[in-house]
């Protein structure tokens, strides 16, 4: 397994901190508006990554934060004339609905920032105690110049960081690049009590308080969109490393590229802002997953109707082939070794998550199968279907009506795993034999069982 690490700006072999176990944190959304295709790209990609890692035998804990207090949420609440907590809850529910529609279901836990105020306060206290943070009349700030490695992730030196770039100019701060850890209360805003008076947390400190709670000061993988590299992820590193004294916050940093719409930057002002719900009115979730995974995840992606239409055609071709395989009843055996084909695809996906090559191979396979499909034997069809199901484990591109089998198999596997934990091995083996007789291959990898 190897992939690009933003921190070192190169492809690296992945070595987890604890054998067989992976902790991954991906920055979640600020819940104050409808969710767009940029969100979809990031969360579909990391959903596929986590599912692929699990299929490779890793036990993965996937943590995502939810920013449920923020200037944008407060402003939205004023527009809607409701409480900020109501805004956050409305859009958090919408986010969950959108993710469910897109088959993004690999996240172990969503951590809402406002539930971690004591942990946030603890981190700020430790930063002040160690001399990295200071209090002013309007809040508490992190003094960036006290952390020499600031800028390492974004490949900048402190001198290169432009005055006020994405950092609000504030005369109370010692330096323009210093960022806020705690904002003191303003009239009409939500607040929590703290040693510095009532107020609310800054954006950056929320994430490190959450990851320290679940993972400790250091973990395997941090992900997000490339627009978060600076200043957000840079600030996270500065905060946690200043507290821990360690070399790393996260050993590997993975970032998805931005999305343009018809060759223009997506923005509300240009009126080309495309929401997930708008796309799903015209296209299946499988079409959108395919469109967003069928590209190098680190590159800028031009999103257009043509992209969706082409993806729709390819997804339909894959699914129609799979449907025909499920109904095959001919007598012709074809030379097909599912194991070797899956091994090739596995190597491609392990090479910087090259899902595009996996899709290319699947389309080529579909073309070969379709030439003999009318005469293909049940045995050969079952062998070919294994490959489609293996890809679908992480890609999520088989239509649900084609995938009724998945629920049945998952239920049987859950029953089998429960029996194994209860040491009822004879009953567990009976379930395995039933699955094998029906053309389902299963393999136990650590705590996980995969099938195809």
Task: Give a short overview.
This protein has 452 residues and is of the alpha/beta class. It has 2 domains: 2-256, Rossmann fold (3-Layer(aba) Sandwich), CATH 3.40.50.620; 310-451, no CATH class. The protein has helices spanning 37-55, 71-80, 84-101, 117-129, 203-215, 229-244, 276-282, 285-293, 305-326, 338-349, 355-372, 378-395, 404-421, 425-437, and strands at residues 2-5, 10-13, 21-26, 59-66, 109-112, 133-135, 139-142, 179-184, 199-201, 219-225, 250-256, 259-261, 264-265, 301-303, 442-445, 448-451.
Descriptors for this entry?
46% helix; alpha/beta; 2 domains; 452 residues; four-stranded antiparallel β-sheet; single chain; 16% strand
Report what the structure shows.
The protein contains 14 helices and 16 strands. α4 packs across α5, α10 (338-349) packs antiparallel against α11 and α10 (338-349) packs parallel to α12 (378-395). It is 46% helix and 16% strand. The model has no long low-confidence stretch (mean pLDDT 91). It is elongated and about 80 Å long. It folds into 2 domains: 2-256, HUPs (Rossmann fold, 3-Layer(aba) Sandwich), CATH 3.40.50; 310-451, no CATH class.
When the domains are counted, the total is: 2
Reading the helices and strands in chain order gives EEEHEHHEHEEEEHEHEEEHHEHHHHHHEE
Please state roughly what percent of the residues sit in beta strands, choosing from under 5%, 5-15%, 15-25%, 25-35%, 35-45% or over 45%.
15-25%
Helix content: 40-55%
CATH topology of the largest domain: Rossmann fold
Compute the number of strand runs: 16
Kindly report the name of the CATH homologous superfamily of the largest domain: HUPs
Straight-line N-to-C gap: 21 Å
The CATH architecture term of the largest domain is 3-Layer(aba) Sandwich
Low-pLDDT residue spans: none
**How many whole angstroms does the radius of gyration measure?**
24 Å
Mean pLDDT: 91
Give the C-level CATH assignment of the largest domain. Alpha Beta
């Amino acid at each position: 397994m190897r992939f690009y690490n933003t921190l070192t700006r190169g492809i690296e072999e992945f070595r987890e901190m604890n054998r067989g176990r992976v902790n991954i944190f991906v920055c979640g959304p600020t819940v104050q508006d409808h969710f767009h295709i940029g969100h979809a790209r990031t969360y579909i990609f990391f959903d596929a990554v986590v599912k692929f890692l699990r299929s490779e035998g890793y036990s993965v804990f996937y943590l995502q934060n939810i920013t449920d207090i923020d200037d944008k949420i407060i402003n939205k609440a004023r527009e809607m004339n409701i409480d900020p907590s109501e805004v956050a809850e409305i859009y958090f529910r919408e986010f969950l609905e959108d993710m469910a529609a897109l088959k993004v279901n690999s996240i172990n836990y969503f951590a809402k920032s406002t539930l971690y105020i004591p942990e946030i306060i603890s981190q700020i206290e430790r930063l002040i105690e160690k001399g990295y943070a200071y209090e002013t009349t309007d809040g508490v700030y992190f003094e960036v110049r006290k952390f020499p490695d600031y800028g390492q992730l974004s490949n900048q030196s402190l001198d290169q960081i432009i005055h006020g770039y994405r950092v609000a100019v504030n005369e109370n701060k010692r330096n323009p690049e210093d960022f806020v850890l705690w904002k003191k209360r303003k009239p009409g805003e939500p607040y929590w009590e703290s040693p510095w008076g009532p107020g609310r947390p800054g954006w950056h400190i929320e994430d490190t308080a959450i990851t320290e709670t679940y993972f400790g000061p250091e973990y395997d993988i941090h992900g997000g969109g490339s627009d978060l590299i600076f200043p957000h992820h840079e600030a996270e590193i500065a905060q946690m490393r200043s507290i821990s004294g360690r070399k790393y916050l996260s050993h590997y940093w993975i970032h998805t590229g931005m999305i343009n719409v018809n060759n223009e930057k997506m923005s509300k002002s240009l009126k080309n802002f495309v929401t997930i719900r708008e796309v799903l009115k015209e296209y299946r979730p499988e079409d959108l997953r395919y469109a967003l995974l069928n590209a190098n995840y680190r590159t800028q992606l031009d999103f257009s109707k043509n992209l969706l239409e082409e993806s729709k055609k390819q997804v339909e071709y894959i699914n129609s082939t799979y449907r025909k395989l499920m109904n095959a009843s001919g007598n012709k055996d074809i030379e097909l070794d599912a194991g070797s084909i899956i091994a090739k695809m596995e190597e491609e996906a392990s090479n910087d998550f090259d899902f595009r090559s996996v899709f290319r191979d699947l389309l080529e396979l579909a073309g070969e199968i379709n030439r003999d499909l009318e005469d293909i034997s049940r045995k050969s069809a079952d062998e070919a279907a294994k490959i489609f199901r293996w890809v679908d484990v992480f890609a999520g591109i088989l239509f649900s009506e084609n995938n009724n089998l998945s629920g049945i198999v998952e239920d049987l596997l859950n029953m089998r795993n429960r029996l194994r934990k209860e040491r009822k091995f004879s009953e567990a083996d009976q379930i395995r034999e039933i699955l094998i007789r029906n053309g389902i291959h299963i393999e136990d990898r650590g705590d996980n069982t995969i099938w195809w």
